[in-house]
Description:
alpha/beta, eight-stranded parallel β-sheet, 323 residues
Amino acid sequence: MKTRITELFNIQHPIIQGGMHYVGLAELAAAVSNAGGLGIITGLTQGTPEKLRAEIERCKAMTNKPFGVNMTFLPTLTPPDYGSLFEVIIDSGVTVVETAGNNPAKWLPMLKEGGVKVIHKCTAVRHALKAQSIGCDAVSVDGFECGGHPGEDDIPNFILLPRAADELEIPFVASGGMADARSLVGALAMGADGINMGTRFIATKEAPVHQNVKDAIVQASELDTRLVMRPLRNTERVLNNPAVERLLEKEARLGADLKFEDIIDEVAGVYPKIMQSGDMDAGAWSCGMVAGLINDVPSVNDLISGIMDDAQAIITQRLNGLY
Ligand SMILES: Cc1cc2nc3c(=O)[nH]c(=O)nc-3n(C[C@H](O)[C@H](O)[C@H](O)COP(=O)(O)O)c2cc1C
């Protein structure tokens, strides 16, 4: 399949693996790129320029296909050294950066000069238009369904994608709720040039996370996610567990007085405990509603080639057969 996204990133299939804290390590990024999609290493999981450089080199040793690095700008207690991290990305010859969380304008000149294509993740059409106006090459449009940070507008992809298609000139991928060929064909029908998946890629053989995480996603239904940190305007969609219920109880009790410090036990330092140790009740971790569509743990290659084969069948048989 050829779309503006496959052309832009020089990949075979219009499927991107979004950055995921403590999941987007070299093993997963390389597996996605080797399968013809675009794998993405999560920059902030590495934290320091030295560690990020080493992770990029590990990925290069596992694939000779293009892959990207995610750089997320979110409120953190100790802001990372973004400048040095971007220098490493450029210096290592990485060709794609996925930015998220805040306006990447400050970093675009150095990335452009370094020959890096930038895809910015947005949860609103106005943010996508801003990304286009500052010179991003593409955007990833994240609907309300998504795992991670869906923003504060709560617009699901059935509305958000056609709205984005009506307004944008640059290519965009649909993100949030994408799991299979139906997602891909639906996204293309709504004007997107491909899909970005997060949660679906965690439940794969190559995802370098504890088996408990994959099992939890397979067991979860579409009813099992919750929105946390809404009172702080930093909404995150997470899988429900006892820690999340504690957190929501604090949010309800403290109301407008809630501060980040009140929920620190449930949200800070959680990812290594969940993803590496499989301590599933350690705190709140991102997961999309799409968990309800995930019933297996395939290899990344089987997942991606299955999506592409089934998409062709949907388009040429089911849809064409309607005429
Ligand atoms: C466990 C997990 C961690 C994530 N971490 C990040 C992150 O660090 N930076 C980022 O930009 N997006 C992050 N995301 C969002 C994904 O890149 C992607 O946009 C989202 O998962 C898409 O929705 P889906 O899960 O329904 O596919 C994360 C998502 C999950 C599930």
